[in-house]
Structures are given as C-alpha cells and as structure tokens.
C-alpha cells in the first residue's frame, strides 16, 4: 500500500485511483494523516479490505509530509561505512543518534530557505513507525513499521560543528530542513526492503549513490537498539543515515546555494525533489 498526504488529506490508491480515506471509510478514519498512525493496525486491516495497493497519479505539488507531526524524530550518524570513512571517524558500536526537532519536517512541495552559506545535503531512507516499540527484538522490528519514505537530513554545518561541543540537533533543525516524501510505502510493496538503491543528484549531477543494504545498523537493528533506551511511538521518524558524497567532506567543500534543485531517489519509493531559495525568499516563492 502507498499512503499519501494530498493537500493535508489522507489518501491511498486502489487500482491506480486516488482514494480519500475519510470519505471512503464514511468517517471511520480522520482526514488528518498524523492521526492514522496510532490506529495503524485497524487502518491497515481496512485498507487491505478495499484493495489498497500500488500508486496513482498525483501531482507532486499537491503532496505534503506523509507523517506531518511526528512525536519524535531520530537521526543516525555514521550509519554507512563509506560515509564514516569520508568523515575520518571510527564506526560506532551502538547507533549514534540525534534528533531533528519535529518543527523542521515538511513535505516535497515546500521551498527550503537556506539558513546559511554552509548548508549540506544528506539523502536518507526514513522509517515511519506504526506501532509502539519497547525492548523490541530485531526479529520482530519490521512488525512495528508502518512504511518507508525518502528524507533529506539537511544540515547547516557551521552551527552543527561549532565548538566546544557539536550542535547536531540545532544545526539540522532549521525551518524546512527535514523534507520527507513523496509518500509512505509499506514494506510489502518492496521486493526486499533491506536492500534498496539510494541516490541523490544536485542540478542533475549525481552526488550520492549506494544501497540501503550497506547500512551498518539495519532498520531492524535500529528499532531494536533504540527501543532499549526509549519507547518508539506511532508516527515517529527514523532517518537511517546517509551514504558518502556529502558536500562537507569533499575537496573542495561544496554547499547548497539558492536556485539549486536536489533530487533524492530510493528504489521502490520514488523521488523527493527539494528546491532552495535565499534567506527571506521562501514566503514570496510559496505565494507566487
């Protein structure tokens, strides 16, 4: 099943046609996409019953974040070996996590106002939780997943790396620095949800390319280990880490500039397109 946030209304697809969930269910489920995750089991049973499967034709300009108000957002540092190598850092023995504050989460149609001159790209597979997970063993972890989407862990490196202690969470949480989309794809739609091609291009140039099978901590491992520390909640987002190719690690370093377009793609999920504008220009662009 594919689940979309179409102009803030929960939407799925049957036979290639978009289905408004609130209307189709006779009000059993709310139109607000954020409210579906606490009822994921019940909703999934209903959606299977109407034959929800596959995608449909929806203009990207109509789409918003598939989990628009996540209770918690987790980001992973150094979860691809090649990214750890380019950063010159040792591999972690336990998932190295930070948070992107939920207010930075937006959908694919929001222009991103660059917060500074050292903003960087990081394409990531994003897990959306569908069931609470506490001390959940890896063998059962996928049972707690609603689906997968694409994310950009946009990072303003000057603040993120400012001393004496790094500011990962603040440097990665400027307004709109957490675009996700285009929609949520349930794991059963994918041949192997643990092995998906992932790539990112900037103005047509490929800057990152890998497979999610190269994750140091797999999706199941992340859920299992994070849930030993705290409870993962329905609607939570887990940004699973980025492969090599970020601008900060290049020689010379490269950063995002106004007018550029970033395209993030993951096999079986689709494409997330992010556009960038200068400081103060976002409101003008969004109302144009």
TrEMBL record:
<protein>
    <submittedName>
        <fullName>Ureidoglycolate lyase</fullName>
        <ecNumber>4.3.2.3</ecNumber>
    </submittedName>
</protein>
<dbReference type="GO" id="GO:0016853">
    <property type="term" value="F:isomerase activity"/>
</dbReference>
<keyword id="KW-0479">Metal-binding</keyword>
<dbReference type="InterPro" id="IPR036663">
    <property type="entry name" value="Fumarylacetoacetase_C_sf"/>
</dbReference>
<dbReference type="GO" id="GO:0050385">
    <property type="term" value="F:ureidoglycolate lyase activity"/>
</dbReference>
<keyword id="KW-0456">Lyase</keyword>
<dbReference type="InterPro" id="IPR051121">
    <property type="entry name" value="FAH"/>
</dbReference>
<dbReference type="InterPro" id="IPR011234">
    <property type="entry name" value="Fumarylacetoacetase-like_C"/>
</dbReference>
<dbReference type="Pfam" id="PF01557">
    <property type="entry name" value="FAA_hydrolase"/>
</dbReference>
<dbReference type="GO" id="GO:0019752">
    <property type="term" value="P:carboxylic acid metabolic process"/>
</dbReference>
<dbReference type="GO" id="GO:0046872">
    <property type="term" value="F:metal ion binding"/>
</dbReference>
<comment type="similarity">
    <text>Belongs to the FAH family.</text>
</comment>
<feature type="domain" description="Fumarylacetoacetase-like C-terminal">
    <location>
        <begin position="73"/>
        <end position="276"/>
    </location>
</feature>
């Amino acid at each position: 099943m594919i689940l979309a946030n179409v102009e803030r209304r929960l939407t799925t697809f049957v036979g290639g046609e978009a289905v408004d969930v609130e209307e189709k269910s006779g009000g059993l489920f709310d139109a607000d996409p954020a409210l579906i995750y606490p009822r994921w089991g019940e909703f999934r049973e209903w959606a299977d019953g109407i034959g929800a499967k596959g995608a449909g034709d929806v203009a990207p300009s109509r789409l918003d974040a598939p989990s628009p108000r996540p209770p918690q957002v987790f980001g992973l540092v150094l979860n691809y070996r090649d990214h750890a190598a380019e950063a010159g850092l040792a591999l972690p023995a336990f998932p190295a996590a930070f948070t992107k504050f939920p207010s930075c989460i937006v959908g694919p149609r929001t222009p991103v106002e660059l917060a500074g001159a050292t903003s960087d790209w990081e394409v990531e597979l994003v897990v959306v939780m569908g069931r609470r997970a506490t001390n959940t063993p890896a063998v059962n972890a996928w049972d707690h997943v609603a689906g997968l989407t694409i994310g950009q862990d946009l990072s303003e490196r000057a603040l993120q790396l400012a001393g004496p202690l790094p500011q990962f969470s603040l440097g990665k949480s400027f307004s709109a620095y957490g675009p996700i989309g285009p929609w949520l794809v349930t794991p059963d739609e994918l041949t192997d949800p643990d092995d998906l091609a992932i790539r990112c291009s900037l103005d047509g140039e490929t800057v990152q390319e890998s497979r999610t099978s190269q994750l140091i901590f797999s999706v199941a491992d992340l859920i299992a280990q994070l849930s030993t520390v705290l409870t993962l909640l329905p609607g939570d987002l887990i940004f699973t880490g980025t492969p090599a190719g970020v601008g900060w690690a290049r020689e010379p370093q490269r950063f995002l500039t106004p007018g550029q377009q970033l395209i993030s793609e993951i096999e079986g999920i689709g494409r997330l397109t992010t556009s960038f504008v200068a400081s103060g220009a976002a409101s003008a662009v969004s109302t144009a």
